[in-house]
Amino acid sequence: MTDVMMAPAADMFEMGVKLQVLKRGSLFPMRAQKLYDLYQTYESIEAIPPKERQKLEQRVFQKNLDEVWGECKAFFSERDPRQITRAQENPKRKMALIFRWYLGLATHWGVQGVEERKMDYQIWCGPSMGAFNDWVRGTYLEEPEKRGVVDVAQQIMQGAAFLYRLQSLRAKGVELPAAWVMTPPQRRGEL
To answer: For residue 30, what are the contacts with CB-CB under 8 A and spacing of at least 6?
Structure first.
């Protein structure tokens, strides 16, 4: 649980909807929350104090907010020109689109492995990822690059079947060693 955090979702930013993301090794969740706090506090980009805006441009966006708005306009002019019209009529809407630029690109930076934006990667996850890492620690699946989709799926299914059998035996009154509950993944033929 300490490795994950709730952060504003790009697609439902204005409503305050949050999703669970990786916190360890990333500044994304804190930066995203800062953007939402600014959105709640100010009515427009222009209303943000100059020092705060400068910090945003240097640390979060790594470019001038006017440039970001230009990119937003180019993006929406191809996909949904009504967004630009709405933003020009409503400064708060414009601020939301600018902030959503960062939130949306943070996922792509992580997927594409953009090295200079490493601290901004948005990686959706939950505590189950940490639990899986704990479960495979010390096994052949410990290193992520050695994990194949089919093998991981098979290990999870075998593990679930094993735990189901243990639970069935317990329900019938059979006492079993507690250590069996955390049986680590086994390669085929090692069982």
So the answer is: 5
